[in-house]
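Entry:
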Amino acid sequence: MLRKNTLALLFRIALAIVVVVILHLATTARSYPVAEDLNDKVSHILAFATLSFLSDFSFPARRFVPLTCACLLGYGLLIEIIQYFIPYRSASALDWIADALGIGLYLASVPLLKRVPVLRERWRQGR
């Protein structure tokens, strides 16, 4: 089994990759069929649920606190602000609300995630 520090590092790398990929998808003019097939709001919810999961597991010694939620919502707001200035994109308050719903989805799923043996260890420390 991987050491806790190694696992946290892998989650941090995954978090950084996902942050970059989401920013790219949110600002590119290029069309990606997989991303385009999902409803826009569903994409936001899934993206921010994933970011929440990766943020939580990247720093296992810390709790998933309101500051973490605020940082994630700040990232979502930053994306909307950037999109406002891109001619082929548009900013949307509903997208930002969908981001918040994604964070809420992650928080609501924690009781189920605690039952997954591989993930259970995260909550044995500090939660």
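Residues 4-124 form one domain.
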